[in-house]
Every structure is written in structure tokens, then in C-alpha cells.
Amino acid sequence: MRADPNQLADAFRTLGLAPGATLADAKKAFRDRVKTLHPDRSAPTEASLAALSNAIAAMRLIESAGLFEAEVWISPEQGWTGVTRLVSVGFRREFVRIPPGTTDGTVIPAIGDPSARITIRYREEAGDWTADLPDTDAIQRFIADFAAPSPAARFARWARTPRSAA
């Protein structure tokens, strides 16, 4: 379940951040805010305790929102033409549409989820990446030597399969 974007924006504003800030920024702002408002640091007043309570509630909402932050590596050509990617972090997956003309370091939301932050990074184009692949004869020899079932294994598999009486 995703948090309401309006509540999430209010939570970021409570911590003194712009809506859509990163989780790391929120944690840092929360620590700084608690250091100034904590009753051990300053005399507790009704206003300071209310502000501390609001900061704690805001941080809990931000953490429970499960903000999705990821980096997508694309080629400069894909940044120029645009591309759609599926980004996975843990068990969560999001589609991101990278519009044409996207530059390195651009932060964009996922499709349908404004709380997801996807940072676009450019990777350098490698020359001929197929030159590093082994030749197909070596792959076929490997399969024949190590991966192909022996005649005894094929017979055992045949013997275990059920057959009709007809």
C-alpha cells in the first residue's frame, strides 16, 4: 500500500524539506530537527513538544511509505531517443519512462507512482561487446561434456515416466 502523495508532501514540509526529497535527506532533517526540539536540549514547551510529535509522525509516515529510490544505467543514445525500463529493488518493481533528451543525473518518477525516484545515469558505450563472448563450438562442447544427460540418465527418466496401457 502506498502513502497518499499529499500526506507525504506534508510530511516532507514538516521536516523542512521540499516534497520528493530522498529518504536519506528526510532522515538527516529529522535528526537535526529532533536535536533542537528534544526536551533534554531545550526547555520543553507545549509548542516544542507538539513540533517534536509532528516530526516523529512525519518521519514514521515517510518510512512507512516505502520510498522507492533506484538508479538506471542507460547509454547516451537511449537518453537521446528515450526508453522504457522495468526497475527492481528488492521485491518491488516499477516501470519508468525515460523521455527523449534525458541527461545524466536526471531524477524522474516511476509511471503511476510519484513517490518513486529514479536517477538516470549514463554508461559509456563499450566497443564490440560480442568480442568477449566465447565461440559457439566451445559452448556446445561444454554442454556435451558436462550438461547433457548420460544414456543411463535418459533411460532412468524414460523408465520413471508413466505410460498408458493402450
Mean pLDDT metric:
79
User: Helix/strand-derived class?
Assistant: alpha+beta
What is the fold named in CATH at topology level of the largest domain? Helix Hairpins
**Cα distance, first to last residue?**
55 Å
Q: What's the helix count?
A: 6
Relevant CATH superfamily of the largest domain = DnaJ domain
* Strand segment tally: 5
Q: What are the secondary-structure elements, in order, as H or E?
A: HHHEHEEEEHH
Name the shape in a single word.
Answer: elongated
Q: Can you summarize the main beta sheet? A: 3 strands, mixed
Report the uncertain regions. Answer: none
**Order of strands in the sheet with the most strands?**
1-5-4
Second-tier CATH architecture of the largest domain = Orthogonal Bundle
Q: For the CA atoms, what is the radius of gyration? A: 27 Å
Proportion of beta-strand residues: 15-25%
Number of domains: 3
Assign the CATH class of the largest domain. Mainly Alpha
Please give the share of residues in helix: 40-55%
Explain the overall architecture:
By secondary structure, the protein is an alpha+beta fold. The chain has 3 domains: 5-64, Orthogonal Bundle (Helix Hairpins), CATH 1.10.287; 69-122, HSP40/DNAj peptide-binding domain (Sandwich); 135-160, no CATH class. Helix content is 43%, strand content 20%. Strand 4 (107-110) and strand 5 form a beta hairpin.
